[in-house]
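Input.
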Amino acid sequence: MTTRFAAVTVLGGQGGEVPRPHTTPVAAVRHAGRWWFTTSRGAAKVTFLRDEPVASVTVADRTGWTTTTGDVTILDPADPLALVGRPAALSAWSAALGLLGAYARDVAGYLTQLHTIPAAWAPHQRVLVAVEEQIVEHAVEPEVRPPDASMCIAGCSDGHRPLAVPGWFDGDELRIAATARPISADDGVAIMLDTALLDDDPARPTDQRGVLVRGRLLDTDAPGQVHDTIAVVARSITTWNGFTTETRRFRTDPARAA
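Output.
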C-alpha cells in the first residue's frame, strides 16, 4: 500500500506515567536529502520539537513502511533570524514548492475552506519543518490481523529518539512490526488511526478524521524484536474531525475506572 500522507512522531512530556511519543498525520515530501512537512506554529508537535528537536517521519511504500529519524530544523517565516545559519534554509523555498506540487489537490481544498478554518491553522500561521536523514528503517506490518483490529502507526521511543512502526490495534492490544531499535516501555506509546494516512484520501482538511491513543505499554520484556502483541493502557484519547479535536484523559486505568 502507498499513501500520499505521512506520520510524524515526536517526543514530549516527562516519560513514566506520562506518554512521551506524539504521532500525527502530515503532508510531507523528501527533498534535498531531508524530509519536510508543514504545520501550525501553535501545534503540539512544534512545542515538543522546540524542546527536543528530533522527529521520525513514517511513509508507506510498495513493500511496507519506511521511517526516517533525525534532527529537526523549524523554519518560521515570522522569525527571519531562525533562517540564519541553518543549512536547511537553503532548500526551504524549493521544498515548500515541492509540498505545494505534491499536495496540490489538498491545497486547493484547503484554500476553498479558508473561511471555516480556525485562525491558528491559517496560512500565515504555518511553519516549515525539516528532518535530517540520520536513521532510516523499514518495517512491514504483521501478517496476522487480530480480530476487530485496525491498521495503525505506533509511535514509540528507543529511550532517546522517536521511532514509529506499523501495526494492528484493537483498543486494548497492539500488534507491532519488528523494529531495528529497542522500544522503551517507560516512554509509552502513541497509536494513530487516521483516514488520510491509512484508509481514505480526502482532498479537504475538514474531511480528515482520526484517533490518537496515548498510553503505556504492558508485557514488554522484548518489544519490537518479533511481531509482538502488547497490552496497552490508555492515558488519553484524542479524536479529530477536520479541525475539531477533543481529548479525553484518564487519571486511572480505564478498566479500573468506576
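Confidence is low (pLDDT under 50) at residues 222-227, 254-258.
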